[in-house]
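A quick aside before the break. I want you to see a complete sequence-to-structure record at least once, exactly as it would be stored in a machine-readable document. Don't worry about memorizing anything.
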Amino acid sequence: MDTVTVTYMHEKPRVMKNYAKCSTLLELWEYRELFYFLAWRDMKVRYKQTVLGVLWAIMQPLFTMLIFTVVFGRVANISSEGVPKPVFYFSALLPWFYFSSTLTNAGMSLVSSAGLLTKIYFPRIILPAAAALGSLVDFMIGSVLLIGFIVYYDIPIGWNLLLWPILVLPLTVLAFGSGTFLAALNVKYRDIKYAIPFGIQLLLFVTPIIYPTNVFPERFQWLLAINPLSGLIESFRYALVPKYPVHWDVLGLSLAVTTVILVGAVWYFKRTEKAFADIV
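That is the input. The structure line, written in tokens, reads:
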């Protein structure tokens, strides 16, 4: 725990009893300055003493896109539904990298900030929320590259492009909800530390990033639809390329599952929050 964080925390009054009856949203609003401070701290720590700095936000999806284009697009010749293969992969990798990094950072946020939890009261849910906000900066930086793709491949710009920033909201909610649940679970079961990277690797192959949903027979597509990332990532592709086939029913299911995950995660987090300082 850094000195600046401790100093900031002690400037806040200890009003724990006043907030026992407050909702999560009211708590987050009251401690909004701390929320932004922790998000900014997480972002600075991520790139501290790195040569390339925030360029890593672009390089990771860009180089992964190049490998996917060669291996899966050229060698394996997996269909991209008529979308230029670099656009096909990059438009999916951006939300994927945001989700996976948020899941990792948020899932470890409580354990890595154990010093804060044991010294002073503040809404603990701020920690995974700050991780979700900090990772969003990387997503926004990477999205700037999309302008270059649109120009280079002469992709027609339509109203569908407005869907890109709109989809960021459910993506953030999904990442925050999943990360919040894992963060609470990780306090009690430290196996989560090892399960998160393993689960992310498996999730990569059951999410339509390497392939479009339509490569699966229609009777099996419901299996992909259970994964809330499926509808979101396919919709991100449609936001760039209007001719890309998008399944609105799958997106609707993704939004419904995302809502359930958020509600369930917040409920479990609040239910176990009182014991965090004792067992972390």
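Two observations worth writing down. Confidence is low (pLDDT under 50) at residues 6-22. The CA atoms of residues 181 and 265 lie 5 Å apart. We'll return to this after the break.
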